[in-house]
Amino acid sequence: MKELLNILEAYESLQHSPTKLALATVVKVKGSTYRRPGARMLMTDADATIGSLSGGCLEADVLEKAKLHVMNGKAQLAVYDMVSDADAWGLNQGCNGIIHLLLEPVTHPQGALQFRFFHDCLRQQKAGVMATVFRVEGEIKVHVGARVTLSEDGTVTEDMKEPFLTSALLEDCHEALKLGRSANKEYRLTHGSVEAFIEFLSPQVPLVIIGAGSDAIPVARLAKELGWHVTVVDHRQAVLTKERFSTADRLSLARPEEYHEKLEFSPHGVVVIMTHNFLHDLEILRHLLPTPLRYLGLLGPKQRTELLLQKLDESGFHPTEEQRARLHTPIGLDLGAESPEEIALAILAEIQAVLSRRGGGFLKNHGGPIHP
To answer: For the chain, which residues make up each domain, given as ranges?
Structure first.
């Protein structure tokens, strides 16, 4: 996410300049590769690059291809076979896979279309799906780089000339939006076939940190390094300052009873409670346990949480078993964390594992591929 934000910011700063731009996107992989589909690199005719496509073995060659063939021309597909013994580019440095890259001139209308889509997803906090054609065979009125986009509010944009293909792509976009996953799809038409990358793009992870103590500072800072959208909430104006939370996107001065009117908690939301205040945590849990969130974590030992849940039960609020199971506490992965920075790492590592639907264990104990 941080990488795509950097690419978007670079594009926005250069789009009205005479600088020529090209974008390389990993659209399909086979075997072991360093990056997965959706990885991108923005390139300029002055040899500047933002983003990465591999561990460093492809970037120079991709930049040369873009400068020679793409920046003044059409979108094209480049395939890098890192499996073959005939290492044509002298690039084989340990990867054992095949990488399909779509290279596009950003000034082309298709390039502008996708950057508008990135802007809507990242700046307006909307999920969306973009279907991009990267291979065309036969007599089909579709070009490499043609697109259909679908935002979570139902807005559709497209530049196709094949109604049947547009309909099929849009159907798969709806499915990807429902599942929250990207996919490669092949479509066979009367006069040929088309392959497309159906890319699910989530908005920035909206992290709300409740509590502005010193231990919240590294959580906010590290979350921004990940490209997340960070809100810090506290009722104490003295600690809720831009000087202390310089990287946060938003600071919200609010007490628990004011959350309904001052804060929004979306189904995409991630909340970390670290107030160190028992009575405040009671009210926060009363408010948030029934709220659909992707992640809800509470700092503190298990015995404290059990007492909080007991007090809620005694007050007439009875958390369901599902609500109890959704609450992550003690918060974080077991990394042996002690310092505030180590604890922040453990917290964010657990959140990342939950968002990725992974267990957070050692990769060396993982029997299959790293990426499902």
So the answer is: 2-107, 111-201, 206-355
> Bridge partners of 157?
149
Burial level of 124, CB count in 10 A (0-12/13-18/19+)?
exposed
Range with the poorest average pLDDT among 64-73, 107-116, 165-174: 107-116
Contact criterion met (CB below 8 Å) for 156 and 168: no
CB 121 within 8 A of CB 127: yes
What's the chain's length in residues? Answer: 372
Q: 225-255 burial string, b = 16+ CB within 10 Å, else e?
A: eeebbbbbbbbeeebbeeebbeebbebbebe
The CATH number that domain 206-355 falls under is 3.40.50.720
* Cα separations in angstroms, 154 against 123, 198, 204, 309: 17, 16, 19, 39
Does position 111 have pLDDT exceeding 70, yes or no? no
pLDDT of residue 90: 46
Residue 221: band (very low, low, confident or very high) from pLDDT cuts 50, 70, 90: very high
Sheet of 156-158, strand order: 156-158, 147-151, 128-138, 192-201, 183-189
- Are residues 156 and 170 in contact, defined by beta-carbon separation less than 8 angstroms? yes
pLDDT score for 84: 63
Residue 226: DSSP 8-state:
T
Which pTM value belongs to this model? 0.82
